[in-house]
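Our preliminary data section would be incomplete without showing what the modeling component actually yields. Below, a chain of 383 amino acids is followed by its predicted structure, encoded as tokens that our downstream tools consume directly.
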Amino acid sequence: MLFEKAATSHTLPDLVSQECSLLPHLTGVLEIDTKSIVQNYRTLQGMLPSSACAAVLKADAYGFGIQKIAPILSQEGCHHFFVAHLEEGLFLRSQLKDPSIYVLSGLLPGTEALFVEKALTPVLNDFGMVENWAKEAQKQERKLPCVLHIDTGMSRNGFDRGDVEKLLKSLSLLECLDVKFVMSHLVSSHAADDPLNEGQKHLFESFLKRLPKMKASLADTGGIYLDPSFHYDVARPGKGLFGLYAPPVHKPALEACLKVLGRILQIRTAHKGESVGYGATHLLSRESKLVTLGIGFADGYDRRLSNNAVVDIQGFKAPVVGRISMDYTVVDVTDIPESLCYVGGWAELVNETLTLDVLAQASGTISRELSTRFGPRLYRMYR
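Predicted structure:
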């Protein structure tokens, strides 16, 4: 508790250097800036003057911690929360009493009573789900809330065209349901010039015209930045809340909210021609000073960054050398002043400039894969 309280007014390296006796055992830390998350929500909501801004918090809020993040966004005025699976919805309901919570995976057979008991709203992805939810509504003798998900190109979840036709022939089923809105999911919203965006919107509109008048939702984070015509009644940003999206030039910016820090465990001198790490993938071309950090791929520092990333030690960049192993990462600090490298000190593996997007590009993946893979050994600190 003392550590978390102090963290509200200090950066982590300063805090640890001043009060290292508090938690001297820490070897890896996630420092999450909740002010930046709130600012990102405000930025996105500000782009939606006529629409509600929801929060997609699936996969433990993209790895940032749903238990901490959801109440903050709720206090900020967010009334709509999306999760992927029922177990996520059950946990979120235990944290938040009032907001609407939507479960994107919808109804599995036998889960209807849990949705009703915990006041969760299923996203109905096929005609069978509609039939089952309508039966539950008749059993409960009241209208039950739901969302209809129409597939317009993802070919993943949602009504296919056959299911849409079945629904249109059985619209009486909707009379016992409280359909909050109809949704679809964009395939390429990150690429503003991709014609798939307009194609999906056109197909979505054509489906809406064939259904009774209902509210609609299409835009994810990228969709918010596309054009107001994509906004409809509810927008569903996820990655943008955490700054995991690079907006187009001249559009409102989003803030990075994450630092990942690794403790310096050992400093050694290694000689020209010696190798570093498993497989000897790095050979030293000079006498070098190497630092071992107490963080590895078991903590979520991606192994594909081996020999392909740098860390920040008090403003100096140090390259990762050799393969990242389960528990450790080695960096070359030969060109960093000795006074800045000491056992017990810290290196920043992710920060405002070494963002997850930068690391994702280096490792051939996306930022969300990296953010959702940070392991439980990393100490989470919110400030």
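The chain has two domains: 2-31+257-382, 34-242. Residues 195-210 form the longest helix (16 residues). Preliminary results of this kind motivate Aim 1 of the renewal.
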